[in-house]
Amino acid sequence: MAAIDQFNGLTHIHRPIVTGAVIGIILGQPTTGIITGGTLELVWAGMVPLAGAQPPNVVIGGVIGTLFAILSGLSPTTAIGVAVPFSVAVQALITLLFTGMAPVAHAMDVAGLNGDTKRLDWMAWIEPAILFVGFFIMGFLPALFGQNVITPVVKSIPRWILGGFQAAGGIMPAVGFGMLLKIMWKIEYAPFFVAGFIAAAYLHMEILPIALLAAAFAAHDYFANQNRKSSGGGGGQTVPAGPTTDDDEEDYSNGI
Q: Of 51, 83, 85, 125, whose CB has the highest number of CB atoms within 10 Å?
């Protein structure tokens, strides 16, 4: 369902912060699921598809990362390092699927020109059906085999490789946030960025109060803009246009 939502629904239930929480609840470890999903969400926060460039698949990243963290006891950062290679491989398969769907799209064009709505309707379900079955298999197999398979596999991985996964997983949330900041950055946001940095680095505030303060600033800015729009943009005050004649110049100067 998350795979379909990513391309056809866009309700954002496919995001790791949602899938991680749901998997955690199903497997009886909601706290681990939420923490892992939130960590993975930071990785994909700035990874957006631009033209032909597609980021690693966010659905498999969230599902596989959370499953590995819960079933094998990996830390969230290490789980990220394990999940990203799966995400890259699945995204390659999705690109192949969409390439194969090109003839179907042309057939749908013909059906639309001929007014064949029934054919158009059932052909529109081909891609969601393939996504549903494919992602169900890829997401269900790790859960089916569970700890009996995943745990021994993880234990057989050399510690230096797991250390590399953990280091990469620790870096990737910062990279994802940096990509997001690059996309949305405007110079007028700089004061808020500096204020947030000071609150986190020097005042040692937790993320939640910083987020609440940011929400408060955003709400204040929003309502202030709404008030300016409702009052005509000038707060009801009229700025003198200046003297129109030489006789008015002295009175105007005194008024200023």
A: 83
